[in-house]
Design brief:
Layout (H helix, E strand, L loop, with lengths): L4 E4 L7 E4 L5 E11 L8 E8 L5 E5 L3 E3 L1
Antiparallel strand pairs: 1-3, 2-3, 2-6, 3-4, 4-5
């Protein structure tokens, strides 16, 4: 698995967003393209890093977020 990643600008950075599948809300901290493969074949995905009210960050696909 490659350790490479790339940060991307996004119109909702530092704004409140909602993860549609879970309904969890938080602040969008970063958008990163990461290799998410666990089997040796590269699989790149754009991930949203969201910080929830407790201060913990979680990731979701960037297509799963909307403004809160």
């Amino acid at each position: 698995m490659s350790d490479q990643y790339e940060y991307h600008p996004h119109r909702l950075l530092k704004k409140r967003v909602r993860d549609i599948p879970s309904g969890t809300e938080g602040v969008l901290m970063a958008v990163v393209t990461e290799n998410v493969s666990d089997n040796g074949m590269e699989h790149w995905m754009d991930l949203a890093y969201i910080r929830n009210a407790s201060g913990r960050e979680f990731t979701t696909a960037i297509t799963n977020i909307e403004p809160a």
